[in-house]
Design a protein that fits this description.
Blueprint (H helix, E strand, L loop, with lengths): L8 H23 L15 H12 L3 H10 L2 H8 L1
Length: about 80
């Protein structure tokens, strides 16, 4: 279970705060023409464990989807958007 799926009030508040931060970071990356390169994370967390979280983000609206398309590599965005 992820914090985003919790029904506890404290967890819901934390998840909402985290989502605001994530949206800001996505917008910043998109505005600065930066991309997420999962190759640098291989030693820490496998890409296949990270992408499902991005898939959840994809459902958060058009602005988030557009920013994800800008910051993810094409194959990663295709996985997230499918």
């Amino acid at each position: 279970m992820h914090i985003a799926d919790s029904t506890r009030p404290a967890s819901i508040s934390k998840a909402n705060s985290d989502l605001i931060d994530i949206k800001y970071l996505l917008r910043w990356l998109a505005d600065h023409n930066q991309q997420v390169d999962f190759g640098y994370y291989a030693a820490f967390t496998p890409k296949d464990r990270l992408l499902p979280g991005f898939r959840q983000l994809y459902s958060k609206g058009t602005v988030v989807r557009n920013n994800l398309q800008k910051v993810l590599q094409a194959a990663d965005f295709q996985y997230v958007s499918s």
